[in-house]
Design goal:
The protein is an all-alpha fold and about 140 residues long. Helices cover about 60% and strands about 5% of the residues.
Length: about 140
């Protein structure tokens, strides 16, 4: 992501878009679960028999309880994402001059160099040669 979005502005936009997509998806899943299983206050509507789910502790938890817990967790996630969104809005207030953006691009090139660069491919080939795996160029 650094190589493909090397400027401050691109990183701001990328992170904002990722946050928005996460919030949208988590919110929509929560809405669907609430339609199918109730909002947690009322008894859930039966979608399938309570088969039960095995937790990491080995304890079998009724499926309806596990879904209600997941819904509560999704509500918490959405609240945290909303808080992060409010904080992230402030990063868009930051504007930097073009020389600073150029520095972003240069550092991005150092952190995430193009893996298809000819020099990098040669270096990788040299680094991965071992005595038990001879070079197959016929030499």
């Amino acid at each position: 992501m650094i190589r493909e979005n090397p400027s401050l502005r691109q990183q701001q936009e990328l992170n904002w878009a990722a946050l928005q997509s996460f919030r949208t998806l988590a919110g929509r899943v929560l809405e669907e679960l609430q339609k199918q299983h109730g909002d947690g206050d009322a008894p859930p509507t039966p979608a399938a028999p309570d088969a039960g789910l095995q937790e990491a502790s080995g304890e079998v938890v009724p499926e309806s309880d596990a879904i209600q817990q997941a819904m509560a967790d999704l509500e918490n996630i959405n609240a945290h994402l909303f808080s992060i969104e409010a904080l992230m809005e402030r990063i868009f207030d930051v504007r930097v001059p073009e020389p600073v953006e150029q520095t972003f691009r240069e550092v991005a090139g150092e952190l995430a160099p193009d893996p298809l660069n000819a020099d990098r491919l040669r270096l990788n080939r040299l680094l991965h040669q071992t005595p038990d795996l001879p070079d197959h160029r016929g030499g």
